[in-house]
Predict the 3D structure of the following.
Amino acid sequence: MNRFVSLCLIAVSAGLVLRASAPSAAQTGTTSEPVRYVGRIYVDLDRHDGRLRPAIGVENRQVMRANRAHPELGDGFGWTYNHAPMLAYWNGRFYLEYLSNPVGEPRPPWQTVVVTSTDGRNWNMPRVVFPHYQAPAGTALPFESLGYMMHQRMGFYVAPNHRLLVLGFYGHAPNPFVEGGIGRVVRDCGERGTPTRKLLSLFAASRVHLGSRRDLL
């Protein structure tokens, strides 16, 4: 009996050693697999609701309803393409940043808008934090560029001094990933939810274009 138990322990130990020594390309927490989902509920990408079970108590709130005929009832512009919303909660207030265009991608003009709320149900009128930027006359744009557009996938950042910053990026339309964009812009949201009028910083995407873009500051 003791010999049988000893053999089992040896086999298990050998298995553990082999497993530990094997290359772990899919180890959770690494770049190859930063997150691992182990649940049994999966999203159906072919359905608008993902075939997910409704969560009791969750509310669906419309922040802004676009209205071309009466812009004053919407965002003040009548622009109907509003995209890439990013939500933050800071100092008792919700902040929602999104991209806005008159009709859709990928042609300018583009602007970044922020709308705020204290309860998540009633929202203030949207405010433009990063306006559309028209290239000055004589500016050399990359081949096939239609002008500049706003494009970002990170909307907010709490700085070490506990200030909420709203972030944006000016790139080329229709492809904001090509070289030669203006760069990233940063604005302070202010203590009362009103972003400051002056940009805090502009991080250039290209040395060639930074000198002619300082008027953004």
Notes: The helical segments are 2-21, 207-210. Residues 120 and 175 are 34 Å apart (CA to CA).
